[in-house]
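Worked example

This section walks through a single chain of length 139. The input is the sequence exactly as stored; nothing has been trimmed or padded.
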Amino acid sequence: MEGVDIRSDATARQRFEHIVQSPDHYLPVAVDGEHLVGYGWVQDYGPHLRTGARTARLHDLFVIPEHRRRRIGLALFLAIKTWAERKGIRYLEWQASRAAIPFYERLGYTGDPCPQPDYPFFEIAFPVDSRAPGVLERS
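Given that input, the structure is written out below as tokens.
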């Protein structure tokens, strides 16, 4: 992709169109009137080669500052969590900035500071669905 401006509006629009059309991505949004005030973005990485357990990565959860503390972030997070559970995801993983840590702690999650103390690692391990074929515990 030499010579392509990865920050251009056109390139961003192409990435966005790819993401919203892919069944392995989920992008819930929050709007106030006609204005986008927040969004989340999660990606299903698919089944693990040996165990078959599916892992999803929460890439972004963002609410514009003037709309924070209105439960918008919570609604977006719960939409992502519900999506992951319905898809049979076993592990939902993400890292958070220092500014976002209190948000996740209020939800009952504690991040692991390793390997990047400034961006702790969080994980939800959903119960194994015995109906899902070939899903074993990760070792």
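What to look for: The chain has a mean pLDDT of 88.
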